[in-house]
Design brief:
The structure holds 2 protein chains of 2 kinds. Chain A contains no helices and 11 strands. Chain A has strands at about 5, 10-15, 20-25, 30-40, 45-50, 55-60, 60-65, 70-75, 85-90, 100, 105-110. In chain A, strands 2, 4, 5, 9, 10 and 11 form a 6-stranded mixed β-sheet that branches. In chain A, strands 1-3-8-7-6 form a 5-stranded antiparallel β-sheet, with no helix packed on it. In chain A, a hairpin with a 2-residue loop joins strand 6 (about 55-60) and strand 7 (about 60-65). Chain A is globular. The model of chain A has no long low-confidence stretch (mean pLDDT about 95). Chain B has strands at about 5, 10-15, 20-25, 30-35, 45-50, 55, 65-70, 75-80, 85-95, 105, 110. In chain B, the strands form 2 sheets. In chain B, strands 2, 4, 5, 6, 9, 10 and 11 form a 7-stranded mixed β-sheet that branches. A 4-stranded antiparallel β-sheet of chain B has the order 1-3-8-7, with no helix packed on it. Chain B is globular, with a radius of gyration of 13 Å. The termini of chain B are far apart. Classes of the chains: A mainly beta, B mainly beta. The interface between A and B is medium-sized, with 20 and 24 residues.
Chain lengths: ~110, ~110
């Protein structure tokens, strides 16, 4: 059974701080890793994808992947109240079968 | 224009009824999915179709039957609804079956009374 683990939170950070969201996965054969953001009552929205070890930056977001440790993280710099949402880590090793974690709720206070 | 759309947005029905949820994508994608998100917000794949062909069928009761009339549409029919079917159902699409970048519809909140 493939598993993706995330701390459910909430993770509370002040506005302007760096938010660090973490995810571990059980399947060593996993090849693709994604972060989705889900606002309350809305659908998941893809914000980052990463496929190889190291860091990938996109604006205020940085995804980090360490396949040896089976660990993927998302850093959000200069956090804004509008970043308050649940962040879902998703992992796949094959044809489009995404396994999602249960998500980490992030609260950014003004 | 909406990329992935679903109807209805809300569905309230009695136990034992049969209902359908419709999904359409105008992205030109080949692959479409149905996910269920339960009250604990856990998002789980149910089905996937690639060019109208079923490619993923997770452990889902056979009361749930997907139908894809063409690659832009994927509908979900549910027979004999049960209380435990209450959830938000999301449709999603991706460019093809190898692409894992999936785009989600707005969801259908199903409440079974």
């Amino acid at each position: 059974q493939k598993e993706v683990e995330q701390n459910s939170g909430p993770l509370s950070v002040p506005e302007g701080a760096i938010a660090s969201l973490n995810c571990t996965y059980s399947d060593r054969g996993s090849q693709s890793f994604f972060w989705y953001r889900q606002y309350s009552g809305k659908s998941p929205e893809l914000i980052m994808s990463i496929y190889s070890n190291g860091d990938k930056e996109d604006g205020r977001f940085t995804a980090q992947l360490n396949k040896a440790s089976q660990y993927v993280s998302l850093l959000i710099r200069d956090s804004q109240p509008s970043d308050s949402a649940t962040y879902l880590c998703a992992v796949t090793g094959g044809y489009s079968t995404l396994t999602f974690g249960k998500g980490t709720m992030l609260l950014v206070s003004p | 224009d909406t990329a992935v759309s679903q109807t209805p947005k809300y569905l309230v029905t009695q136990m034992g009824n049969d209902k359908s949820i419709k999904c359409e994508q105008n992205l030109g994608h080949d692959t479409m999915y149905w996910y269920k998100q339960d009250s604990k917000k856990f998002l789980k794949i149910m089905f996937s179709y690639n060019n109208k062909e079923l490619i993923i069928n997770e452990t889902v009761p056979n009361r749930f039957s997907p139908k894809s009339p063409d690659k832009a549409h994927l509908n979900l029919h549910i027979n004999s609804l049960e209380l435990g079917d209450s959830a938000v159902y999301f449709c999603a699409s991706s460019p093809d079956r190898r692409s894992n970048e999936q785009f989600f519809g707005p969801g259908t909140r199903l409440t079974v009374l």
